Amino acid sequence: MRPNDQPSVLDEPSLTAPQRLTRLLRWLRSDLAAAASLGLLLALVGLAIGAPWIAPYSPIEQDLVNTLADASAAHWLGTDDLGRDVLSRLIHGAPASLYASVLAVSVALLLGVPVGLVAGFLGGWVDDLISRGIDTLLSFPAIVLAIAVTGALGIGLTNGMIAVGIVFAPQLARLVRARTLVVRHELYVDAARCFGASTGRLLWRHVLPNTVQPLIVQVTLLLAGALLAEASLSFLGLGIQPPHPSWGGMLARAYQNMELAPSQMLAPGLAILFTALAFNALGEALRVALDPTMRRL
Residue 57, by phi and psi: left (phi above 0), alpha (psi -120 to 50) or beta? Predict the structure, then answer.
């Protein structure tokens, strides 16, 4: 069988939702990088949920007698410039990073998906107007636009992630629009229209479900982008505010003391790096699993 003839993991119409999920997870387990990435992300979620009980110290408790200490039995990753335990702050920074990523992508979905559906389904001058607006937003560097929106909304983690979601929304809108342009000419859409289905029903019941597979892949990639954006905004002081821990904020404080304790940058830097890589690896595995042209024989 040629790759183009192979159905994707979720294409069989007889499969129920749990069966589709089981088949997808089985496929992901066959990919070592995807399995490791999924395991890392699940462990990170567990760490974020259990942070108050797992962290050995308070993330904001200061010990000015024991500042910039090296790793030891008492402090596995040392202490920062205010004597706070780095490991505890790293653990308590995980919920903020996950919350930021999920919030930004949720805002992008809420804004981008409806706009893409309307543009692709209606076409004509509506599509032209929306497409030009999308192109205009995509012409700006993402982080610059996020900083501008954050400045307008106000400094803070939630406002910063809403800004990032607004920046990401045009990418999802363009993706959904492209898929909608194909789906709207399918026979089942024409049949539903002949039976009197309204535009809203056509979009909700027939067009939107057929844009889910590429959206799943794009969402995983945007989660990595949102994580990096949150770290960048926190590094610049526009994200989560002290004394609450965040990986980007930890990196900023470590950068200020880089000459005295360069190892302080390793923990938050590696946490950001490996989490972003895990999202990207999982997104790539999903792309291969859901696209029959990418499937291995």
Answer: beta
Structure tokens at 284: 């790539």
Do the beta carbons of residue 165 and residue 111 sit within 8 Å?
yes
Tokens coding 77: 């990753």
**296 falls in which pLDDT band (50, 70, 90)?**
very low
Residue 148 has which token pair? 């501008």
If pLDDT is split at 50, 70 and 90, which confidence band does 23 have? low
* 256 vs 269: CA distance, rounded Å: 14
d(CA 106, CA 226): 11
**What is the structure's pLDDT at 138?**
83
Q: Is the pLDDT of residue 292 over 60?
A: no
At 188-201, the pLDDT tens digits run: 777 877 777 777 77
261 in Cβ contact with 220 (< 8 Å): no
Cis (ω within 30 of 0) for the bond into 243?
yes
Alpha helices in the chain (DSSP H): 17-29, 32-49, 51-54, 86-122, 124-138, 142-153, 157-183, 187-194, 199-201, 212-235, 247-256, 266-290
Look at the block and give the residue holding tokens 């760490």.
47
Please give the structure tokens belonging to residue 140: 């700006």
Residue with tokens 């030009």: 132
Of 66-70, 103-107, 203-207, give the lowest mean pLDDT range.
203-207
| Contact of 84 with 59, CB cutoff 8 Å | yes
- Candidates 43, 34, 88; CA nearest to 63 is 88
